[in-house]
């Protein structure tokens, strides 16, 4: 359906004037509306939006402005926009790239009575000029401007010119307008053109208007005496109607060699040839099909006829006299080489030598039944019944990062192999995992049973760079009298046993049921060798023997402030040395616990004493 206009408020009445008539305000408004509605409807329906005349844009250099000349335009609402005089425009709003446009606008002016707000006597039409990145709705494009500093570049080829709008039944645009500033003398028709009468062209017809685009109707050579037959690409051609037909351009249809005795066969691309065809040159085309003719059944000889060492044929008639009707064959005498490429850059894609060995990517398979150069994609299973897979030492077997389930990636036996699940590489065995040397001597054994364990049979040292967590018992040197050591570079951390808020360090011997004590040793660096020192010994009955910690000596002299020592919760302080004159006149040396909980060493000198010095130590544990 064609687009329809809402005529509800369309003016369809006008005044009928007579002598002595008393005219009201409505009479003048009805007359104005009658003519304005029709003019706007005419502009909107039979014209298209754009410039009618003038409104040229010129750049004013060194002023960052443009001049817009007087002119007129029509917008999409059918309003006629009039610019009465030239205007200089510079309101670019800090944009550097945009469209210069003109819009219809009107405003009430000339107020007749100041006390009456709506007493304006004139509607003044004054268009709006603007510059924006995107042209506003219902405005007309005057040109595109690009601004770099104070330099303005004008692109006038985007200016829109008005034209004719041809009404039709499907609302699709059918318009005729100027080609714009780029081709001002060109009329551009949007849609098809049909001419019932004659067409006279005084100039040149350009484009693709030639006989190759005539796709229907009857062509009469008498009507078109200079018809270029090399452009006839379809239809039925009759040599009686076109006696001078250039046969080298016939590309389709049924050709009879009796009707066209001088047929140029190198241009026949399809159809049926009745009779024999002899080609002295090359056959060029997309497809070559040889049909069966009795016993031959589609034979293509690549050498002389009868040479079955160079022939491609369908052996359903035993034409090679081998006694077997064994389907399609391609016989070659000294290898089959299929090459791809162009010119001198051809390379071998597929090669079969006289021994039946196949090469892909090279022309020499060597002693291999299949020699493939390059990457291969194999979808399905690969079964090797005999032999083995040999890889160069620098090669890899790479699996893609897919299928991270508990399936084996490398299966060595049913239920035995290597797999991946997420970020975990696992080894699966229904029995034991065994590590052996080149002499098949077992060096380490891991049992997969529920109560299995790991047995290391080597006599060398083992190390762990990280943490070692043992959820069961850890036994080292389990035989009686063993001198096996546990070497630690850090510290031993004991955790709570049960819910007793106590950690246990336990010495025990369950096998011989003997009394066992616990001895803690330290090591000192002697002048010639390291020395082990017994630090603490705990007897089987629980008695502690060993050295007690005490601090270095603290020194206080008369006149100094008291000396701070260890905390009272960690140690006990005692005097170890006193010096000076004690004359019984109030001289004192003492240790005491301060308000901060620390021990202090101090004293005072009386009237008869002199040079009082005291020393003290703390015994217990380091503060």
From TrEMBL:
Highest taxon in the source lineage: Bacteria
Protein name: Uncharacterized protein
Organism: Nostoc punctiforme (strain ATCC 29133 / PCC 73102)
Higher taxonomy: Bacteria, Bacillati, Cyanobacteriota, Cyanophyceae, Nostocales
